[in-house]
Amino acid sequence: MRQIEVKKKVLKRHEEVAGQLRQRFDAAGVLAINIMGSPGCGKTALLEVTAKQLAGRFRTIVLEGDLQTDNDAKRVNAAGLEAYQINTDGACHLDALMIEKALKDNKIELAGLDLLVIENVGNLVCPAGFPLGEHCRIVMSSVPEGFDKPAKYPRMFYKADCVILNKIDLLGILDFDKEAFWGFVEQVAPRAKRFEISCKTGEGTDAWLGWLNQQKTNPKGSKHE
Amino acid sequence: MRQIEVKKKVLKRHEEVAGQLRQRFDAAGVLAINIMGSPGCGKTALLEVTAKQLAGRFRTIVLEGDLQTDNDAKRVNAAGLEAYQINTDGACHLDALMIEKALKDNKIELAGLDLLVIENVGNLVCPAGFPLGEHCRIVMSSVPEGFDKPAKYPRMFYKADCVILNKIDLLGILDFDKEAFWGFVEQVAPRAKRFEISCKTGEGTDAWLGWLNQQKTNPKGSKHE
Prior knowledge:
The structure is a homodimer. By secondary structure, chain A is α/β, with parallel strands linked by helices. Chain A has helices at 2-28, 43-57, 71-78, 96-105, 149-152, 154-157, 178-188, 205-217, and strands at 31-37, 60-66, 82-87, 115-119, 136-142, 162-166, 193-196. Chain A has a seven-stranded parallel beta sheet, sandwiched between helices. The radius of gyration of chain A is 17 Å and the shape is globular. The model of chain A has no long low-confidence stretch (mean pLDDT 94).
């Protein structure tokens, strides 16, 4: 099938560039993380609520992926982190070539950095298939989305190094079966580190920052490479 | 570019089949609707909460699109509507070929039907690009996702015949700028009919059912064909 051949070739190119990015991150001592999740699950809010602690611990740059607008980069900048927008012009995910281009276009010097945060397009499907050279894949889900998401979107969850359940301040208000949620995560991504947080109240974010610190100290890379 | 040529050819094939489906729907007098939105926005819940009214008004069949599991078809069946699952095996959207195959495999007789409801994969990006022969495109957003989604995901919203804001029971609890949300919808999809509903309380669903009734009476098709 011609279509499949072309697709394979494109994916191979993306994987090559992702590998080159990883080498550049490693050579510069930069920890790169890729945050993925549904639209509105709280990816940008996590960066806003932890911006001061991140800025205090790490020399950090954020790349914000979106179809349109630079709203998220503005929000993260306003919170005190240096952020650059990548507009995918309609594409449903970030890919390694976009990351390579954003680093070049924005003259980002990896040598001076500790942490590169990549916030992917809000999408619980497609970003899972595109490696960006990251050391850690962080998958965020949120209480209002319902407890069944790890079962229904397993390809997103199964390569996660860390699964964050956000909006736990709504647990008493919404009908959400937390045990079932983590049970599905256990089935799909048994080795993923788990966090429960509220970006609204800040609850649980310290534990996540502590884990990030550990990853920075020992950036051996995702166990899924 | 070879990649683009192949992609164009595939999309053309999908459009052809979508056109054939539309002809079949029209010949049988079936109204076909395509419900799209983020994971957990409430697409299945809308069918559950309106199942009795739908079943009372229309001879209805539901096709449920998901990456994995037949949870949604089971939920909709349990609510009293005849539903069939389409597992996309990881694909991020439904396409016309999948609909054609599901109709055939499940021996669905269009001649006896009034309404075909297609619930797409939870994804605010990719399903927008794949016509399924539907008469109405229904885009659902929900309060916890945040008010900026029509601005950030314009390609999903701009072809909507109807935009539903769900989970309005959370308006008093969450920080959601409703005026800004509808302002963005106005910019992107000025002609789309607008509904505010809560699938939890049932509020607002009667108005949506009334609109659906009108579409059934006059199924001239989407103004976006």
